[in-house]
Amino acid sequence: MAKRALSHLALWNAGALSLLLLCARAACPELCDCPRAHHVLCANRGLRAVPESNRAVRVLGLAGNFIGNVSARTFSRYGHLTRLELQFNRIRRVHPRAFENLVELEELYLGHNRISKLQPGTFGPLQKLRVLYGNDNDIRMLTGETLGKLRSLVRLRLDKNALELLSESVFKHLSSLMFLHLESNQLRHIHHKAFSGLTKLQFLNLSDNKLTQLRETSQFSQLRSLVTLLLSGNGLTHVGGHVFQNLRKLTMLSLSNNNIVRLESGTLKGLARLRELTIHGNKLAEIQAGVLEPLTRVERLDLSENRITHIDPATFTRLTRLSVLDLSNNRLRRISGNAFSTNAALFQLELSGNQWKCDCHMEKLKAWMAETRARGRFLTALVRCHHPPALEGKYLEHVNGTELLAGRTGSGSCRADDEEEVIGSRGAGGRESPGVTEERLKRGGETEEDMATRDAEGRHKNPTIKRKKEVKLRPAPSASAKASSSSALVGTLATKMFPLTKENISMWELHDTLHNRVPHTHVQHYTTGSVEVTDACQFNRYIVNVSVHNVTSESTTVSWSTPEDTRTVPGRALVFRVLFDRFGHSVRFPRYVYTGGSARAVTLQELRPDSTYITCVESVVGGALCQVAPRDHCAGFVTTSPSAKSDVKLQHATAAVLGANVLLILLVGGVWLGHVIRRRIKTRKSSAHTHVRHMYSTRRPFRSAMATTCVSSEFSGYQSGREEGDLIQFPVDRFFEG
């Protein structure tokens, strides 16, 4: 009886459980899924109406259906909803009382529908609502009564609608709002107090609207918690001063793709915490010094795709944290290297798409780029020359110093843009017009008469020095620029042809050098009094004892001397230029090295082994070279072949490394082989004998009478000399054979 009662109870429990499961399935609406007890998911099921359910539903998903209207009783049985998804339907009208019973609703998604108007009080009962999406509809107007007093609302999306106006009270009661999306509307006017109640707002997107001006200082004055402000894609032509002055926490500001022509000095005032500023795609013509001064913490600055032709050298001085700067696709021709001297954090500098003029004005920029990379900082900055035509398409870092300094004047300073026209205004005789001469005198320049007078005075002071003929000076690198970076310019290439022939050096010197591989030049001694030299042609006469030392396969040392009492006229700096080129080749490719006036030796590098070279030394006085090629201060030398000793050492080192590797391999192989042998020996020992104790008990004494005829005579004989009770051991194969 007891067993029968237990079986009936088990059957009853199984039936009850099945009934509960059937009831649960019946409670889930048709064509919907109910993965959890309080979730009803009906997305993309082709529904045209909201399904009914008797369950206590918390999450209802109806996205991607064909629901056209939301009536007053649509959600009457869903009083416990916390999340309602109605996006991607065909809803045109929402009844004012549609959400009357949804007092616990926290998230409402109405995006991507066809709603054109929301009646006042529609969202009034939703006091717990935190997220409201109404994006991608056709809403044209909002009032203070439309949204009601949604004091718990945190995120509001109204982007991609047709809003044209924001009134004063539209967001008045949304005191907890933190994220507001209003992009891609038709906003033309925003009341200056429209955002006055949004003291907790952190994100505001007003991009892609029809705003043309921002002049009201109170427009964003109450948004003291704002972190991100996006104003790109509007028609902004003017941004007034102090508009952003109260945005103390703003870290990201976008003004891109507008029509801004000028930034006033106070436009960015108050943005002390800004980290990213984008103003690309505007019509800015210049960036004045002081405009960006308030941005002391900015890290990313985008000024690309504007019309900028000039940037003040002090523009970025205070931006010590700037790491990314984009100046691409503007109309820049020059920029000072000092413009980035204080930006120690800068690692990405976009300068492409400009019409760079690679002349002496760009020398400091090139030097700054080289110095930055030399310090180990990773800097991406590419400057592609557009002018002059000879350098078009070439990158600035690959332009040598001679090509850059071609625009330097005789006084050692860079020629201004207006001076290029002055050179063209001279007549056939090379004399300037009276108007041009007067203008140059005003700027502190020298006329040809001044130069002639200065040369006459130099000859008067040094009657022993006679010039064979009058020569003109050609522009050369400034002394100050090259003296500071002589070591960095070793081996700098120049494409300018140097007028040298075989007669430029003494043939007996070259002959002696080629045969003996010992550099030698004729030693000269000058005994003069205190001499002041006025130009390079004069000073070249005092360069003596040019010699070559330490010739190797890749480098050599050139030294020379000058009288100690020989000096240049005060104000004219002295620099030496050393030429070296392969001798006897039809294609000339001379290279130059510049040293300071105090140096009397230089190391030539990047030489080819077993090649004949010629090297000449000449002076650069006041930034000018003598146009007459040097003859008396040249030397020839032949580089040596690669050292055989180094090859032998390299071979020995290679052999030693190979030997060590072989020994290591043998050692490892020996250890492995020993391990294998030990394992095999151990295996054989363990399998050779098997103890009888595993098959018989040792407690029982051995009885000879128990031996049967199946035991061989050999076994009996083996056992005859043993006592009873001894443990018998024998091979396994014999045991099984018996």
From TrEMBL:
Compositional bias of kind Low complexity: 475-486
Membrane spanning stretches: 655-677
Biased composition (Basic residues): 461-471
Family annotation (InterPro entries): FN3_dom, FN3_sf, Ig-like_fold, Leu-rich_rpt, Leu-rich_rpt_typical-subtyp, LRR_dom_sf
Organism listed in the record: Hemibagrus guttatus
Tagged with keyword Membrane: yes
Keyword Signal carried by entry: yes
Pfam families attached to this UniProt entry: fn3, LRR_8
SUPFAM superfamilies: Fibronectin type III (SSF49265), L domain-like (SSF52058)
Signal peptide positions (record): 1-26
Region (Disordered): 408-486
PROSITE patterns the record matches: FN3, LRR
Domain Fibronectin type-III intervals: 542-643
Bias kind Basic and acidic residues: ranges: 437-460
Name assigned to this protein: Fibronectin type-III domain-containing protein
